[in-house]
């Protein structure tokens, strides 16, 4: 399968990655939950996209309506907050799986520096995973959350195919510029809210993944651990040479 990876200034470079099940061209569905460069999600774009959000909860203190968790890894702790108001099913799924110990011992199986780190597959291959609902579950999109640097989002293999795999956005401000944002708008047929564009230019992220993947959390501490994981030596299929292990996920509140 061909993955497209973001590089500096919004350009794309190609990397080869194989799955255990099948290979497919762009736009085809495989058994591997993945994070592609270009997602076809126009039908899912909210109709009120032009409305500028007054503030982004991703950059606010943890509120009473949010949930804080600590992801303990063999490289350190990552502190995150979850957004049940905006992504109730994704948050319910993540919390329930965490409390069941589902993520304990699972590795980050796909790591691409200046793009994202991906985990949540008990097989460690990128082709496994399951939700608490007995099947995949639907996407939850909102203009109040975006794939800014540090966003926690659901990996998928197409619309409404969320299971247990997730990723944390590692792309920083060097990966986003105005030309890149304009290209995404032209390709996808919408305009980002001005505040969203300003925030992407300030902190970075993966704007091409908006309305293609469900953002349900954000890193609020331990960015140095995310950076360290993103920088490990990789082998075939962007898999770390030495396992990066999720030891447990602790629900703080």
From TrEMBL:
<dbReference type="Pfam" id="PF00160">
    <property type="entry name" value="Pro_isomerase"/>
</dbReference>
<keyword id="KW-0697">Rotamase</keyword>
<dbReference type="InterPro" id="IPR002130">
    <property type="entry name" value="Cyclophilin-type_PPIase_dom"/>
</dbReference>
<dbReference type="InterPro" id="IPR044666">
    <property type="entry name" value="Cyclophilin_A-like"/>
</dbReference>
<feature type="domain" description="PPIase cyclophilin-type">
    <location>
        <begin position="72"/>
        <end position="251"/>
    </location>
</feature>
<feature type="compositionally biased region" description="Acidic residues">
    <location>
        <begin position="28"/>
        <end position="45"/>
    </location>
</feature>
<protein>
    <recommendedName>
        <fullName>peptidylprolyl isomerase</fullName>
        <ecNumber>5.2.1.8</ecNumber>
    </recommendedName>
</protein>
<keyword id="KW-0413">Isomerase</keyword>
<dbReference type="GO" id="GO:0003755">
    <property type="term" value="F:peptidyl-prolyl cis-trans isomerase activity"/>
</dbReference>
<feature type="region of interest" description="Disordered">
    <location>
        <begin position="9"/>
        <end position="53"/>
    </location>
</feature>
